[in-house]
Amino acid sequence: MLTRLRLMFRSTAVRLSALYILLFALCAAFLVFYVTAMSERLLVQQTRQSLEEEVGDIQRAYGRGGVNLLLRIMERRARQPGANLYVIAGPNGEMLAGNVASVQPGVLDQEGWTRFPFSYEPYSESGDARPHMATANVLFLDSGLRIMIGRDLGEPARFRSIVRRALMVALAIMGVGALVIWFGIGRNALKRIDRMSAASQKIMAGDLSQRLPVGRSGDEFDRLSDSLNAMLGRIEKLNEGLRQVSDNIAHDLKTPLTRLRNKAADALAEKNEDTRQVALEGIIGESDQLIRTFNALLMISRVEAGSIAAEMSDVDLSTITADSAELYEPVADEAGLRLETEIEPGLTVSGNRELIGQAIFNLLDNAIKYSGEGEGEPAIKVKLGQRDGTFRLSVCDNGPGIPADKRGEVTKRFVRLDESRSKPGTGLGLSLVEAVMELHGGSLELSATDETNLQAPGLAITMVFPAPKP
Amino acid sequence: MATSTGYSLRAGESDGAKTGADAIVPHMKILVIEDDLEAAAYMTKAFREAGIVADHASDGESGLFMGTENAYDVMVIDRMLPRRDGISVISELRKRGINTPVLILSALGQVDDRVTGLRAGGDDYLPKPYAFSELLARVEVLGRRKGTPEQDMVYRVGDLELDRLSHEVKRNGKEILLQPREFRLLEYLMKNAGQVVTRTMLLENVWDYHFDPQTNVIDVHVSRLRSKIEKDFDRPLLKTIRGAGYMIKDEG
Fold first, then answer.
1. Distance of residue B130 Cα from the nearest chain A Cα, in angstroms
2. Which of A27, A116, A340, B41 is 20 to 30 A from B100 (CA-CA)?
3. Residue of A320, A358, A433, A439 to mutate, interface with B, max B Cβ within 10 Å
4. What pLDDT digit, counting tens, does each position of A73-86 carry?
């Protein structure tokens, strides 16, 4: 419990609320004393005012009817319930008559208002003669008599103490409530933070699927947890992608490396000079393929890192597209494909000619590789045009196409939908195209060339470039 | 082996020294500046087997010294070197008036690096990892560059004739019609007649793209060209060098 309290004091929220409670208590105490003091002063003032009036009455009565009238009036007044205090004293201050048993000595020796509240003993039938406090005005008459008219101060004091007690009780209740709430909040916050750190511990231990707990209140804790969870989600996705890539690298590089090693072993064992020559050439071919794969991987990472962006210039998209189509026309022809072009001239973007060229090459490679598999006369169409502020370069084939739900897959590194991997290729072609498009602030769209043809919908891959601002 | 005597041969004399079938006499002397000792050892050995004498320097300063003191036909310079980086070695060499062709090797290897390297005075650029055949072909072409008369208006290989001005190609006096791109392809092959040119070199010089074509796209163009220049003639001129590239040469 103690350690828990100490822990609680370490939390910012708890420290702040403690400070708040202290300030609140100070203000409240000041308020209580101020209110009661003010109300007491008001009461005393009212008392004095009424006494003053009475003194005036007495003086007037004395002036009109002398001592007799004075005594009569005083006697009548003294009998009334809740009456003021009346004393008539001789010239030396000795008490002659009045409705009090005794007053504090010296009170009657000075004319005017008593400076401080004084004590007096009232008449008491039960014999309980506790001294009371009073304030009074003393009047010296020209006959030598002294008159004291006073009022018991019990009432304002009682009032003050009632108000004070009521306020104190109210404040005490508020204070206790605040303490309870504070304790509850502090404990709650502490608990939530404990839960959050427990979750983070698990995440740090490697379980990236863990998420921080999120409450329903949508408060700052929940908002923090929400954004941390979003971050974790992104990290998990990236991590997943990385793992996928390294798995693929392991597979896609291990296979050719093993093959390379086997071929080298075979070549070493080969006695026949000609056969060995062929085996060695096979090894070279195999290594070249590996180098290609590495280069493609390096290229993609560099394009993704954006470090090539420095080499941007105005690129005539129309010319590159036409050149690429021309370069691939014989290849398509050899594969028994018709290659058609529909190129809008004069479209220029800011970009890297090499990368755009390589991206188009990759698309054409793909199209030629997979087009022949469809029905009907295989054909590839290369289109370049503009639409809605974008330049769209499409390479469309009429092959078997890619089902809509798998289209997102093919741009991932090493992903090849053809499980048997019977076609040559690194599985990196479209990854590079996508990276190149991202570098150019564009995007890559995959769709069917002809949705209505169910046998061979074909694949249309479109490089979407943002058109340069005029 | 003739290689031991080969070291004493001046680069210029080696051309005249026609070799026998079994002896390899160096026809070129190059300097390799490369800090990876294993790679350098492999390179010098492989170059020697191809008839090229390769000296080796393992850092930028000693490379600069050797490049200044000795006459080489070609220098192969790694971009990242201890004591003085490759780019600085090249610009210093050029400042000292040494115009030996330089091939830059780079592990950084992408388009922008290539531009930086060439701007600093390099003549060719090869990103790592590379196939040695690619490096060899490029070094051979760079080494011959000095001797190739750029101003030659007509290239001849055997009975094949290419007129660079009129864009006419004739074989044995008979005109062969070529597409513009096929003409440039043949022009580049004939300019480097007797030397291996790789597919990447063809893509660079004929189509002006500086990356590995990855697929057989160049092969298709070459085989089209080959069918045009060889179809009606019995003697082949355009050879495929397996694992390396192509070479045009008159064997007769």
1. 7
2. B41
3. A358
4. 888 887 777 778 88
With beta carbons under 8 A apart, name residues in chain B contacting A334: 220
Give A278 to chain B, closest Cα distance, Å. 9
What's the confidence (pLDDT) of residue B15? Answer: 37
**Domain ranges for chain B:** 3-145, 154-248
Interior/surface letters A172-204, b for 16+ CB within 10 angstroms, e for the rest: eeeeeeeeeebeeebeebbebeeebeebeeebe
pLDDT at B247 over 80: yes
Residue A291 and residue B213: Cβ atoms within 8 Å?
A: no
Residues of A with CB under 8 A from a CB of B: 281, 284-285, 287-288, 291-292, 294-296, 298-299, 302, 307-308, 310-311, 323, 326-328, 330-331, 334, 352, 354-355, 357-358, 361-362, 365, 424, 426, 429
Q: How far is B122 from chain A (nearest CA, A)?
A: 18
Tell which of A260, A276, A284 to mutate to test the B interface (max B CBs under 10 Å).
Answer: A284
Q: Which residues of A touch B111 (CB under 8 A)?
A: 308, 311, 352, 354-355
In three-state secondary structure terms, B84 is: coil
The correct CATH number of B3-145 out of 3.40.120.10, 3.40.50.2300, 3.40.1380.20, 3.50.50.100 is: 3.40.50.2300
Please tell me the predicted confidence (pLDDT) of residue A258.
Answer: 85
pTM: 0.60
Between β-strands A338-343 and A379-387, what pairing exists: parallel, antiparallel or unpaired? Answer: parallel
**Tens digits of residue pLDDT in B9-47:** 333 333 333 333 344 456 788 999 998 888 889 889 888
Q: Are B209 and A358 in contact (CB under 8 A)?
A: yes
A331 contacts on B by Cβ (under 8 Å): 215-217, 220
Q: Classify domain B154-248 at the CATH topology level.
A: Arc Repressor Mutant, subunit A (1.10.10)
When CB atoms are compared, the residue of B110, B216, B221 closest to A308 is B110
Give the span between the Cα atoms of A215 and A225, in whole angstroms: 9
Tokens 């290539």, located at residue: B114
Contact between A48 and A135 (Cβ < 8 Å): yes
Comparing C-alpha atoms, which of A433, A411, A436, A428 is closest to residue A309? Answer: A436
Alpha carbons B223 and B153: distance in angstroms, whole number? 25
- Summarize pLDDT for A432-441 with one digit per residue, the tens: 888 888 888 8
Separation CA A409–CA A6 (nearest Å): 54
Burial of A70 (0-12, 13-18, 19+ CB in 10 A): buried
The reply to whether residue B243 touches residue A307, judged by beta carbons under 8 angstroms, is no
